[in-house]
Design a protein that fits this description.
35% helix; globular; alpha+beta; three-stranded antiparallel sheet
Length: 184
């Protein structure tokens, strides 16, 4: 498919205009690194089921696959890995020059418990933030209601009901692979 969905959580002052206009409002800070998460459950873990302060609204943001691949192609790992980088200085230099960062964190199950494999978080700054907001963004949807519905099923211990509500997610294979970004 030409697009994919990533998740971010924001306060209503950012989320509501973003959903209405399908673009981030002026109050959204372009000069900060912004982290996008392709995993719905990792976003639930990070936002506390959309209950943490400043993360009360969860957005499903549809972006172009081309843009996501660009970010991966211009990304550096957020942590030093000796099998990927010649040394720490080389890693630091790559990190400084990169508009995107890849971070691997434990994926989460339906109860938000750690799984034995990793989920991607992609940090965007500088040129990548500009491209994300102005070129890659296709649509913005508020999935806070879904987050709360899933959380209600989790609290009831209803695994089947929880799984039935979760967005479908499939492994992502970037165009041309992702050399140097699998240091997890």
């Amino acid at each position: 498919p030409p697009t994919l969905t990533v998740y971010q959580a924001y306060p209503p002052s950012i989320a509501l205009p973003a959903v209405r206009d399908h673009r981030f409002p002026p109050v959204w800070k372009r000069d900060r690194m912004t982290w996008i998460k392709p995993s719905f459950l990792w976003m639930m873990y990070r936002s506390g089921w959309a209950q943490k302060e400043g993360q009360e609204r969860v957005l499903a943001i549809e972006i172009s696959r081309e843009g996501f691949d660009w970010a991966l192609a211009h990304a550096c790992l957020s942590a030093y890995h000796p099998d990927v980088h010649a040394d720490r200085d080389a890693w630091r230099a790559a990190l400084r020059g990169s508009p995107a960062r890849v971070q691997w964190d434990p994926e989460r199950d339906w109860r938000l418990q750690s799984l034995p494999y990793r989920a991607l978080q992609l940090g965007l700054s500088g040129e990548a933030v500009r491209r994300y907001a102005d070129e890659w963004l296709v649509s913005v949807s508020d999935v806070t209601g879904l987050a709360h519905a899933v959380h209600a099923r989790v609290r009831e211990g209803d695994e089947a009901g929880t799984r039935a509500l979760l967005p479908e997610e499939v492994p992502y294979v970037p165009a041309g692979g992702a050399p140097g970004l699998t240091g997890h």
